Amino acid sequence: MTVVESTPFVPVQTRSERPTSFEPEDFGTPTGREVNWKLSDVRRLAPLFVDEETEVGDDLAVTYDVDAIESYLVESTGHDVAPRGEIFEPEDVVAAIAWKRCANALHVRIPEGETVAEPLVARIAGQGEGRHANAHIVLEALPGSDATIVLEHSGSAAYAQNVEILVRDGARLTVVSVQEWDDTAVHASAHQAVVGAGAYLKHIVVTFGGGAVRVNPSMRLAGEGSEGDMLGLAFADAGQHLESQVYMHHEGVSTKGDVLYKGALQGEGARTVWIGDVLIGQDATGTDSYEKNQNLVLTDGTRADSIPNLEIETGDIAGAGHASATGRFDDEQLFYLQARGIPEEQARRLVVVGFLMEIVQRIGIPALEERLAADIEAEIARGAGLAPASRAGA
Q1: What does the pLDDT look like over 296-312, one tens digit per residue?
Q2: According to the UniProt record, where is the region Disordered (predicted)?
Q3: 177 inside domain
Q4: Of residues 378 and 54, more confidently modeled
Q5: How far, in Å, CA of 288 to CA of 86, rounded?
Q6: What share of the chain has pLDDT > 90, as a percent?
Q7: What b-and-e string marks burial along 100-124, b requiring 16 or more CB atoms within 10 Å of the CB?
Q8: Number of domains in the chain
Q9: What is the pLDDT of residues 139-180, one digit of tens each?
Q10: Does pLDDT of 376 surpass 70?
Q11: Under a CB-based contact definition with an 8 Å cutoff, are residues 40 and 214 in contact?
Q12: Residue from 79, 251, 62 nearest 160 by CA
């Protein structure tokens, strides 16, 4: 009798091992059991799993206001036009469909050595609930340049988006993605960035609106002495699912990275998901890295998932660590404020604002910071009548 030994199935455990493909069929349709979908709202994201043409007549599901960045736009027609695809590799079926169905990229290029004083803002507006659109965006900062690019999302649509970020040697770039969708919008976006030698990237994700929003950024600190900050802020109301799976890969020597995401939740069914992965590669000696996620639960009936992961392949590093915390209001903070004559409702507002503004104040764009501060106040006011949380979310 011949004994046939079968190889046991071993699920993918680390972010660096995930398969990539430009072919949607290689991934199949997510069921919610896959490692990168098990905490996602697969039911609401399902329209983005369909591989089909998205244009309806002559109207597009999403419009782009790019007047503010027109002088920095570069024609990019076709899948093979460089630098599109230089570093981007789809990690899931949504990114693969967006790659396949969007032949022409929106390419923003900052010229070598140029410092752009004002932020470059692209406004992306959904034109109707359920209307489906795919996009590929390339943000490129040439050597020695310095700029800030903001992607603002509003309206409603089922919108799949790939963002490819190239920070060349010695460049400094800030990328801010703001999600202020209507509650009926569905949005999944994959941001993939590479940072060259002596270069710096600050990447910020701010999500207030949308029914189900999944923005997954990854950053490769590839060049020697490269640095990166990955910052995020989410405020989930009743029924909202706001998610980010964050990946920082230290590849070069003497790289430095910081990951800080914060979330607030209020209302029945509000949910945030944060999964943070940091990989310090075997050649990344002298690395200094830290990641942290904090969530503030404002009412019962919410859920915050927070999973930090750290993988180190070399012992010659300056430092590395990670932390995660989810909880309700700090009673001592509230007591301190109330003991000084501040009413409880106002004290709670001050605590929430102080907690979230740490991210907002690091954006570096005064007008946008002021607007987001107002959005935070509006979110707090919207939940003012809800009962405070008696315990932390699961």
Answers
A1: 999 999 999 999 999 99
A2: 1-29
A3: yes
A4: 378
A5: 27
A6: 81
A7: bbbeebbbbbbeeeeebeebbbbbb
A8: 1
A9: 999 999 999 999 999 999 999 999 999 999 999 999 999 999
A10: yes
A11: yes
A12: 62
Half-sphere exposure (Cβ direction) of 316: Cα atoms closer than 13 Å = 8
Cα-Cα-Cα-Cα dihedral of 118, 120, 126, 127, to 10°?
A: 80
Phi, psi for 96 (deg, rounded to 5) = -65, -40
Contact 255, 227 (CB under 8 A): yes
Instruction: Name 66's bridge partners.
Output: none
Query: Amino acid letter at 31?
Result: T
**Cα-Cα-Cα-Cα dihedral of 355, 358, 361, 363, to 10°?**
-120
Amino acid present at 56: V
Residues β-bridged to residue 245? 275
Domain of 268, in residue numbers? 17-382
2 within a domain of the structure (yes/no): no
The answer to whether residue 387 sits within a structural domain is no
CA-based end-to-end distance of the chain:
52
Are 221 and 251 contacting, i.e. CB atoms less than 8 angstroms apart? yes
- Residue 186, H or E segment: strand 186-195
Whether residue 393 is contained in a domain is answered as: no
Report residue 170: phi and psi, to 5°.
Answer: 75, 0
